[in-house]
Design a protein that fits this description.
It is a single chain. With 253 residues, the chain is α+β, with helices and mostly antiparallel strands. Helix content is 17%, strand content 47%. The protein contains 2 helices and 18 strands. The strands form 3 sheets. The chain has an 8-stranded mixed sheet with strand order 14-13-17-18-11-12-16-15, with no helix packed on it. It has a 6-stranded mixed sheet with strand order 2-10-9-4-5-6, with no helix packed on it. It has a 4-stranded antiparallel sheet with strand order 1-3-8-7, with no helix packed on it. Strand 4 (56-63) and strand 5 form a beta hairpin. The chain is elongated. It starts with a helix and ends with a helix.
Amino acid sequence: MMGFTTLHILFCLLTVFTLTTQDLAKLHVSSKINAECGKQVILNCNVSLSLEGLSIRHMGWSHNKSLCSVGSTGHMTINHNNSISDFHCEYKNGQLSLIFKEVQPLETGHSTPYMCKLHSNKGVPHAVTKVELQECGLAEGVLTNDGPSCTFRRVYPDGDVHWFHSSLNLSNGPLMYKTTKRVEKGGFLTIHSHLESKGLDLPFSCSLKSTRSGRFIANTEVVVRAGAGSLGDLRTVLCFSILLAVSLTKLIC
């Protein structure tokens, strides 16, 4: 008899618990988003409005600090100072969207996930989205009076510079090159590399190899910048001009 009573109580409690959890509000988000550099990123948080009697008191996105929230009246509050990325938020029919013009490296990857949280009469659920920034970089190569030079901008993550002369990899060769790195606001890197070449003509090229994946994420050929030829070219033009002037003088005389 005692066993029957205990089982009956447990069954009743389980039934009540099941009915209660079915009545609780739930949030739906993407667990992970792969963002492209320089592209818009949208984080959506949805709550089903079909849940009977649901009353939303507060719904918001945060990333360590509150980014935006909407109250029971539909009024939107946005805290732009709590993020280094340019963003805005939109709310419609139970969906709160956090929209970035682009995300910065310092706010992606291993940083704290983005959290959506709901305060309602049907519970206080929350859900998180992790944003992962894809590898990227912009490359420019020019030939200066001091030799070939390459600059990689808006680089993520870190990378190693590899120099090439035609198809020959110069990175482990006798030629010396100097590379400097600078972290910009938001976490992107600017990487500059200068090759000390002597007696080698174009073509030169340089590539950036990701330290995370081992893939080449940016590359460029070294070109002669307009109006900035080599010192040898300038001497040739100067000598030609002098000879031309002397020849014209003889003809006139």
